[in-house]
């Protein structure tokens, strides 16, 4: 390999390794090299071998040295492009293309919120990468925490997020399956029916001691389980316990409840047909096996559950999926709790699950946050097991990359005040729909005497104080006797320090922008064509907003 070729490759190998945690991908590196040096295309074989070699060399360097070396060549190399971000997730262990089965397993207590989107999208990314199968498993085995609407809303939210679901499984269709698993555990001597009151039982476990029922024979346990199934026990009178290890150093992993009785509330789907409900660890373990899950990605909050579920896998000799637990996410300033939202909706405080004050997926959609932005956000955060604070700023930054190039610009004047313009017969304004895309056309306004425009109160006060203003794309004005006197249309005044203000024609449309804090900004906007309905526009100097209706009033939801 010539020194010159090595140099050309080394730059991109270092860059790639730096962006991907020390691992350099020779194919990606080669792509970059050939893009920069088309003259090397005829020597692709040689370049490929050289890229392999240089990548291996770079991977052998301490990460800090890689970073230093990249910075010395060109610090700009460390800026990730959008496509590179998309590939940032590490490969899964033992993942075979076409054979990967993964799932999202939400409880249908309400629609999805921003917190759920991480698990939904990471799984989706991997299923797509490995051409696998995505299961949406609705875990509805706690009848106290079910909103019947969620069976419809969750799939809608997943579809909106761009998640491709291959199969939907509802756990309340599978009671008999869980009972069968319970029986098998009993027969193996790995489960018992415990009728101790919950607190003393927990205390005994804490002390590593067995309760009197733990030594039940399988026969006895089966009889007791029959009694549970035939309504012979009420709530908290009996539970089926899965045995683990009472001396396990982590008390949370010692014997756990596998099934319990709930007879005070009917199930929205099965009524009172079944009153013995599996607890999450039993139904999750059973289903992860029976549905052929190969990889389970979930939050670190499930670490103890994984340890419990592994007992069931081991008893049956089932092959375990590969588990990955990512760090916990704290989401600041977001209303996410289903029960709070539910109450708020019933009490009339929230307009619905998509009330823009909420952190639900449908509220974000209503505001004009794009699913793609949420996906980019989580890809950027990745699979790390460190706990993080969710950053709305970063989500907005990703969203802006998407909406800024497509959002048409309009004027919206909040707290509007009229201003009469004198000294000119006709004013014509021609503003681009998008400053970077003249081909999209213009918004045109022709104003004839008597001319009145609307300005935001603080802008009008600014004019009063400073004595001059430029109304964007319209004209320059001087303040005189409560009116704006026309002084021409030369942009040059901006260089002299004249401030620029936006404005709206007096015959504009009444507008309301709903803010995420629940307040409403009222004003007048330019009339928007009906095609802007459901789209995100930018109200200049105000922000982006998703248009709900364009007439007879303009209604919009603030995006960011
Ligand atoms: N339904 C449970 C949850 O949402 C189970 C999830 C899992 O096992 O990944 O927390």
Largest sheet: 7 strands, mixed
- Major sheet: order of its strands? 12-25-26-27-23-24-13
Uncertain spans: none
Average pLDDT works out at 95
CATH superfamily of the domain at 409-558: Ribosomal Protein L25, Chain P
> Cα distance, first to last residue?
52 Å
CATH architecture name of the domain at 409-558:
Beta Barrel
Overall geometry? flat
CATH class membership of the domain at 409-558: Mainly Beta
What do we call the CATH topology of the domain at 409-558?
Answer: Ribosomal Protein L25, Chain P
Strand-residue proportion: 15-25%
Share of helical residues: 25-40%
Tell me the number of strands.
Answer: 27
Structural class: alpha/beta
* Rounded radius of gyration (Å): 31 Å
Tally of individual helices = 17
Q: What ligands are attached or bound here?
A: glutamic acid
Tell me what you see in this structure.
Among the domains are: 3-84, no CATH class; 338-403, Glutamyl-trna Synthetase, Domain 2 (Glutamyl-tRNA Synthetase, domain 2), CATH 1.10.1160; 409-558, Ribosomal Protein L25, Chain P, CATH 2.40.240. The strands form 7 sheets. A 7-stranded mixed β-sheet has the order 12-25-26-27-23-24-13, with no helix packed on it. A 7-stranded mixed β-sheet has the order 21-18-19-20-14-17-22, with helices on one face. It is built from 17 helices and 27 strands. The protein is flat and about 100 Å long. A hairpin with a 4-residue loop joins β26 (543-549) and β27 (554-558). With 560 residues, the protein is an alpha/beta fold.
């Amino acid at each position: 390999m010539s020194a010159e070729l090595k140099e050309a490759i080394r730059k991109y190998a270092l860059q790639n390794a730096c962006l991907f945690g020390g691992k350099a991908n020779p194919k990606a590196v080669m792509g970059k090299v050939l893009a920069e040096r088309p003259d090397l295309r005829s020597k692709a074989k040689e370049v490929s071998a050289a890229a392999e070699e240089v990548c291996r060399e770079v991977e052998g360097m301490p990460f800090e040295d890689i970073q230093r070396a990249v910075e010395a060549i060109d610090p700009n190399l460390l800026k990730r492009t959008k496509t590179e971000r998309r590939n940032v997730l590490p490969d899964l262990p033992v993942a075979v293309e076409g054979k990967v089965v993964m799932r999202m397993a939400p409880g249908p207590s309400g629609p999805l919120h921003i917190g759920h989107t991480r698990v939904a999208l990471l799984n989706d990314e991997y299923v797509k990468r490995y051409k696998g199968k995505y299961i949406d498993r609705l875990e509805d085995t706690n009848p106290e925490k079910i909103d019947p609407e969620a069976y419809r809303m969750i799939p809608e939210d997943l579809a909106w997020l761009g998640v491709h679901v291959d199969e939907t499984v509802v756990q309340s269709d599978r009671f008999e399956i869980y009972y069968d698993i319970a029986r098998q555990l009993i027969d193996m001597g790995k489960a018992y029916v415990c009728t101790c009151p919950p607190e003393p039982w927990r205390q005994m476990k804490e002390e590593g001691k067995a309760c009197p029922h733990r030594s039940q024979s399988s026969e006895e346990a089966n009889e007791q389980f029959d009694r549970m199934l035939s309504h012979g026990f009420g709530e908290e009178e009996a539970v089926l316990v899965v045995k683990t290890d009472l001396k396990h150093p982590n008390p949370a992993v010692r014997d756990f409840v596998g099934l319990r009785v709930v007879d005070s509330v009917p199930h929205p789907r099965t009524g009172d047909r079944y009153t013995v409900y599996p607890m999450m660890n039993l139904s999750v373990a059973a289903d992860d096996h029976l549905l052929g899950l190969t990889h389970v990605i979930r939050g670190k909050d499930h670490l103890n559950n994984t340890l419990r579920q592994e007992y069931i896998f081991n008893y049956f000799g089932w092959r375990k999926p590969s588990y990955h637990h990512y760090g916990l996410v704290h989401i600041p300033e977001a209303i996410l709790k289903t029960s709070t939202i539910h109450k708020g909706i019933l009490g009339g405080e929230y307009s619905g699950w998509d009330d823009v004050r909420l952190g639900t997926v449908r509220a974000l959609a209503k505001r004009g946050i794009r699913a793609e932005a949420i996906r980019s956000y989580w890809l950027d955060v990745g699979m790390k097991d460190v706990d993080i604070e969710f950053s709305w700023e970063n989500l907005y930054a990703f969203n802006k990359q998407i909406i800024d190039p497509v959002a048409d610009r309009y004027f919206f004047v909040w707290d509007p005040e009229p201003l009469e313009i004198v000294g000119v017969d006709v004013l014509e304004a021609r503003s681009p729909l998008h400053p970077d895309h003249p081909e999209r056309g213009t918004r045109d306004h022709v104003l004839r005497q008597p001319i009145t425009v609307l300005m935001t109160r603080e802008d009008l006060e600014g004019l009063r104080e400073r004595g001059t203003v430029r109304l964007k794309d319209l004209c320059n004005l001087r303040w005189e006797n409560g009116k704006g006197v026309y002084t021409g249309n030369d942009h040059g005044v901006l260089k002299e320090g004249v401030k620029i203000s936006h404005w709206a024609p007096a015959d504009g449309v009444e507008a309301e922008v709903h803010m995420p804090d629940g307040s409403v900004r009222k004003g007048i906007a330019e009339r928007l064509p009906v095609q802007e309905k459901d789209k995100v526009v930018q109200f200049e100097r105000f922000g982006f907003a998703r248009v709900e209706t364009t007439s007879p009033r303009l209604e919009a939801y603030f995006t960011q």
